[in-house]
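User: If you would, consider this record:
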Amino acid sequence: MKKGKKWLFKKPQGPAKRKYSSHGTVGEIVCDGCGTIHPELNQNEVSRGYLVMCDYQIVEECCGAVLDRLYDFFGEMFFEMWSDEFQKDPLAKKHIYTRTCVECMIRAWNKVATKENIESETILAQLPLS
């Protein structure tokens, strides 16, 4: 934590239910959310996930629940804003990852929609028609 910065919370807020981090460490890390000092891990242990948000380093295992609440509240709104930006310039370099995600989302949707369509057609075929 930088000098003069205060903890966001008086105690840990609970672990994250989702995986947010693109960062991980096996070294000692301090959660800027609550001040918890997480000791260094052994090299054979899975790294500890953290996310830097507004210049605060939030460790997922102690204050990740805050990220869950923020995602639940703002996630769809941010997705809509990102989608609007994407639609204005879909070939922009900043949208490389977005294009991959969109393709994966369409495949997942198509798989489920096709399965449900087949199930619906099967049920309709079994109905007695007058």
